[in-house]
Recover the amino acids of this structure.
């Protein structure tokens, strides 16, 4: 079937990250060793000092591009198990279907912008 089994880094790209930044397992794709990503960890690493906002947005942009292209090729689905805010909520909506748990709200913008739009202080946080 069509689709993706995992997102991965080749050996050269994987080696660029500090140990512990990317949690991955070795896989083989077209006879080459790659690292299938299980998690991207940023907190407390010198490579992410000052926040990882730019890195997150770059990753989100890549995911958005792949999801958008996949939309016309395969069935796309998002499964929302927790709060999804901002770009994460938009990414979910790029797919053809969304399964959303009752306690998994999708907030397309921050609480400050919502309050400004409503003209009064209704929300105090993303919670």
């Amino acid at each position: 079937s069509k689709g993706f089994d995992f997102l991965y880094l080749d050996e050269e790209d994987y080696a660029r990250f500090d140990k512990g930044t990317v949690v991955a397992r070795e896989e083989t794709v077209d006879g080459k060793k790659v690292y299938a990503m299980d998690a991207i960890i940023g907190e407390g690493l010198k490579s992410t000092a000052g926040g990882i906002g730019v890195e997150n947005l770059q990753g989100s942009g890549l995911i958005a591009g792949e999801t958008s292209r996949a939309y016309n090729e395969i069935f796309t689905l998002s499964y929302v198990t927790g709060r999804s805010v901002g770009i994460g909520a938009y990414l979910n909506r790029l797919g053809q279907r969304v399964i959303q748990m009752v306690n998994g709200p999708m907030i397309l913008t921050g609480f400050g912008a919502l309050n400004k739009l409503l003209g009064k202080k209704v929300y105090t946080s993303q919670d």
Q: What stands out?
A: The mean pLDDT is 79. DSSP finds four helices and seven strands in the chain. The longest strand covers residues 32-40.
